[in-house]
Amino acid sequence: MPEGNLYTRNEKLVPRPIEKELKDSYISYAMSVIVGRALPDVRDGLKPVHRRILYAMRELGLEHNKAYKKCARITGEVLGKYHPHGDMAVYDSLVRMAQDFSMRYPLIDGQGNFGSVDGDSPAAMRYTEARLEELAEVMLEDIDKETVSFRPNFDETLLEPTVLPAKVPNLLINGSSGIAVGMATNMPPHNLNEVVDAIVKVIDEPEVAIKELIKIIKGPDFPSGGTICGRDGIVEAYRTGRGKLKIRAKASIEAQKNGKEAIIVTEIPYQVNKANLIKAIAQLVQDKKIDGISDIRDESDKDGMRIVVDLKRGENAQVVLNQLYAHTQMEETFGIIMLALMDSRPQVLNLKQILVAYIDHRKNIIVRRTTYDLNKAQARAHILEGLKIAISALDAIIKTIRAAKNPAEAKEQLIAKFKLTPAQAQAILEMQLQRLTALEREKLEEEYLGLIKKIEFYKSILASEEKVLGIIKEEILDLKKRFGDERRTEIVGDVEQIDIEDLIAEEDMVITISHAGYIKRQPVSAYRKQNRGGKGVTAAEAKEDDFLEGLFIASTHEHILFFTDRGRLHWLKVYDIPESGRYAKGKPVVNVLQLEQGEKVSAFIPVKEFDDRFLVMCTRQGTIKKTELKAFANSRRGGIIAITLEKGDELIEAALTDGRQELLLATKKGIAVRFSEKQVREMGRSAKGVRGVRLEKGDEVIAMEVAQPKTMILTVTAEGVGKRSEVSDYRLINRGGKGVINIKITEKGNEVVGVKSVSDDDEIMVMTQAGMAVRCAVSGIRVSGRNTQGVRVIRLDPKDRVTAIAKVVAAKEEQVKEETTRTTNDE
Question: Which fold has domain 504-826?
Fold first, then answer.
């Protein structure tokens, strides 16, 4: 039986390792994508699909001054003759070449709906029409003079150009973008005037340095305008072929009739969808990530773009504008990769290499064009020489032709008798009798003399590279005169130095934070508008189940440090806290900070400056850590690590100290440990910390307090029992000890729920599991020894339990005055 099965019989099988087959096949595919689809040629700046579209439109006779044709007709022509891929691949490429917001200098003149900067899709190809722009005709000029090579199309029935003559430096003026296999190109568009001047400079001074060319080509020039911030990215891209640009929308601030201000956006970064940008701004306002915007609307029309962002009264427009730059596509980064095909190989090119490649291409085109014109002129001159011979011996020529039996014999007789070439003899046979008149003989002579001059001119061009370069200059300068325009994209210095803080007036603010996590700020002046003897001003109207847990005075330029239960620190400027009215509850802290899912704020500390003080932190499992405040000076938007936690542990408290304080840790089983802060060594920002208290099984730390000499330690249990004890009752022991009894717990299941350092003037809020909240004065709770049970603080229903206690801040004008005095004394 012959080898092989039914499907491989009579076939030759070659065993091959699959990894080698995959490697070779993938390389072939990659090179096909790189060379035949995704990357532009450095000479004409076009990918194959764009080149085929332009050539097919020329073959259809779609010049800029002729009638439009349906895009479906053009797409079919390209598909059937040159580009056997999907019709949308061709139509999408055609559409892009017609969009004035995508191409700096469009190559196709479209009629109909070709999409918009709002991201609207173009109409179907059966509805739209197109023809070539005049600039595209210049790209194709001289293609019929054997200036470029042709190759067979996909079915080898036609020929297509491998490159266009490209009198226009299209790669630079229109740019290109494409993703190949393992590489990508992202070439920005440029201004034609600047590119022409740079080409002339390279022709005149071949050794010119790139830094001199950068003075001429100042940077990319996008069709959508905008502003490029900084020149470092431009210089790097032009020098190495890679760089990054920061592009901003062009915006101005206008005063409105109602006394408010508005931000007017007239230009947006390249390739940014205007409709999506407006939606993004509206979403930021809805999510309250940007305050100060009252309305946004699009007033764009045929005269240009105009996005109006109305601001609330009293808002700093420059601050809001900077927030829009930071959070939306009004500021974008454009990564330049100047990758193109040179000699059929992908190469990352610098600016001068691209200019030199264009000049070399044009030199080749002009030499081939001139050679073609020279051959045509010489061939015509040769014919005219034969005609001159015929006229000089007219009677003999006529006699010879009349005597011949047929045209072939007449041609042979003419060649033999008058020493003519076959081409000359054929031209004499085809000559019209009217050419024998005196006037026609004179024209013949004039044409011949003119051809002799042209031949000499063409030969002089081919013999002189200087003349070739002169023609390139002449033609490129004519392009500048015909198609050049002013720069659209402005280039300014680096704007990173602009600091929002410099735009905000420094003034004292009252910051309030409620137990439910609402935060707001108000000017201190809001508390000083009453006459002497008034009843006082309320700082906030909290909900029934909410109350103020923090109130302090801080300048708009100061910071608030927020510590979360996951050991992270979030750094917030006071001016970033939303300003609210007297009766507003404020904004949830979770909406101001970038917290993770389920993450909660466990402590907050106002900080004027990051000096030599320390931050002390405590975790639920009894770990304590001390770190220099300076270590937290540099923050990130998503927060930074304040302490590295063990699995299952969480940060419960943080305090600011001078390094010489005493700390008290209290546990839920009624144990407390008091020790000197000096026993906690200073650690790095992301360290884990050291043991603060040795916990019994099932116990955990519920509070950390800085133990001041003249304060009391208030302890409350889940059963509603509480007591106050002198700090001195808790003897100083070493850090990490088991501690002493804080409160005597007799009932099973009872535990400590809160410990606070208090004075006689304080008030506390006791919260229960059933949602009860009782506010009581600390002075009403009896002072008793450390190892006692305490007294009833709140009467509970049989199944209810206390869940937490908190110190209540007096939110009246007197409290603000007290805080102001305290802040002044600290300074």
Answer: Neuraminidase (2.120.10)
46-165 CATH fold:
Topoisomerase II; domain 5 (3.90.199)
Question: Cα separation of 292 and 420, whole Å?
Answer: 92
Residues in the chain: 827
Q: pTM of the full predicted structure? A: 0.69
Where are the alpha helices (H) located in 112-187, listed in sequence order?
A: 134-140, 170-174
Average pLDDT over residues 540-566: 72
Q: Encode 526-548: b = buried (16+ Cβ within 10 Å), e = exposed.
A: bbeeeeeeeeebebbebeeebbb
250-329: CATH class? alpha beta
Which residue in the list 68, 127, 325, 730 is annotated as catalytic? 127
Domain spans, the chain: 46-165, 250-329, 504-826
- DSSP assignment letter at 181: S
Distance between CA atoms of 442 and 448, rounded to whole angstroms? 10
**Top-confidence residue, 636 or 65:** 65
* CA trace torsion 230, 236, 241, 242 (10° rounding): -70
d(CA 196, CA 217): 9
pLDDT digits (tens, 9 = 90+) for 176-235: 999 988 899 999 999 999 999 999 999 999 999 999 999 999 999 999 999 999 899 999
Instruction: Quickly state the pLDDT bin for 824 (edges 50, 70, 90).
Output: very low
**The Cα angle at residue 823 between residues 538 and 713, in degrees rounded to 5:** 80
User: Do the beta carbons of residue 441 and residue 391 sit within 8 Å?
Assistant: yes
**CA dist list (Å): 88 to 93, 107, 110, 382:** 8, 19, 16, 51
Instruction: Look up tokens 């996951």; give the residue.
Output: 566
* Helix, coil or strand: residue 24: helix
Paired strand residues for 160? 151
Please list the residues that pair with 623 across neighbouring strands: 691
Q: What is the CA radius of gyration of the chain?
A: 43
Measured CA to CA, the distance from residue 162 to residue 399 in angstroms comes to 52
Pairwise pLDDT comparison (199 vs 501), residue with the higher score: 199
Q: Does residue 238 carry a catalytic annotation?
A: no
Q: Residue 781: CA atoms inside 13 Å, Cβ hemisphere, count?
A: 33
Mean pLDDT, residues 117-146: 96
